[in-house]
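Possible race condition, two jobs.
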Amino acid sequence: MRIDIVTLFPEFFTSPLQTSLLGKAIANQIAEVHLTNPRDFTTDKHHRVDDEPYGGGVGMLMKPDPIFAAVESLPSLPKREIIYLTPQGKPMKQEMFKELVNYDQLVLICGSYEGVDERVCEHLVTREVSLGDFVLTCGEIPALALINGVVRLRPGTVGKEDSLKFESFEDGLLDYPQYTRPPVFRGWEVPEVLRSGNHKLIAEWRKEQQILRTKQRRPDLLC
């Protein structure tokens, strides 16, 4: 899988793309990530990538021409999605990651300032994606979240791939509570059923806990 990030701040990704499982996946060529700065495609002497919005308003907008030029400079693989990270997009969910992992190429456009010229969304972007119902200073943070969520589903990223089957949202429920040693810590004990060795009872307890936790914390998932 090829991931292209169109960003004014490529240095933002230096550490995250070299760290933990994501860094290992990229090092092992499970996914390849390329950074493209739209500022490199400006033609004026000041290399401006933003300008005032028509009609007035607060803040500046990213100009369309550097973004189009940046994306058009990239190779185009057969199954490609061009994604703009914006609060107005569809919220990220596990099902979205499971869909995107099957693409050959993801192009992620990170907005800054007050966003991008609408013509980018109308004529270039194929999908708008949001991290949630809030506003951040830039699109780089949601881009990292999307990359992490997708790449971890690629074969070879997670050591025990079976663990991906038993996570929050995989069956529409949150994950069950988990414990490790010691069995008693500051007087708090690990539930006895988990120490029983009875796999049938453990499975039943875990399912009950998933349902209970989802009802308490995310009842919207049960609708």
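Job #2 (started ~2 s after job #1):
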Amino acid sequence: MLLLQRVSTGISKLDKMLGGGFIQGRTYLIAGETGAGKTILALQFLRDGLLRNEPCVYVSLDERVGNVLTGAETLGWNFWPYVRSGLFYPFEIRLEAAEVRKYGKESKAFIEAIRKVTKGEPISRIVLDPISALATGAKEEFYVREYLREVITYLEEVCNATTLLITDIPTGSTRLSRFGYEEFLASGVIVMGITRLNGKLVRTLYVRKMRWSQMDPTIYTFEIQSGFGIVIKQPFDALLSKSAGSEVGVDDVTDLDSRPI
């Protein structure tokens, strides 16, 4: 029996929730509202690859790359040596909605940009952050869907890279993506959120979808800690039970994953 090769997220507890980690060469969606920690999870995933000497790409479709990497330093993560060594390729792409409408499925601008920056070298892990910025403002749903499908197909079939697509969802929304169909193109979906409990904000994370895996769909709480990144703690329901009758803060949650990465 052929076993699917797994790729670590860089978070041991999340690997277990996914049934062993991401499946190598597949594409996954990280969805959540602003401030939920999506970019940090993505950088943690890339850092794990870099520590394993894997070539990685970070494509910023919104924020300046320099700001992202400088922000990572507040967590104790220094990506610059990997950039200088040629193992890490962080860069920015700005594609207007008009280009998506004009070229649709035939557009190769995005793919060619990645090939140019990496000089055609093999890539192990890729992050597109946020994928929703690729076609914001495009009115024709067909073009956006096919454009994203083409990009995902290329990354999986040609690059054979394990890819994370970051997408923003409005606060309070029950949707899993900005356009409503990214989750169908991805092999798995991780949802990150923020909820208020006893006057404090609690971050949550759960696996909504994971093809070909025995996933754990439990909603867990997590913290973002310097030197560790995302630290997954106890289930949210357990926190609610503790808070019944007594005020419980985020700091009262028991660690499930507190190893530095």
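The first helix runs from residue 12 to 17.
Logs attached separately.
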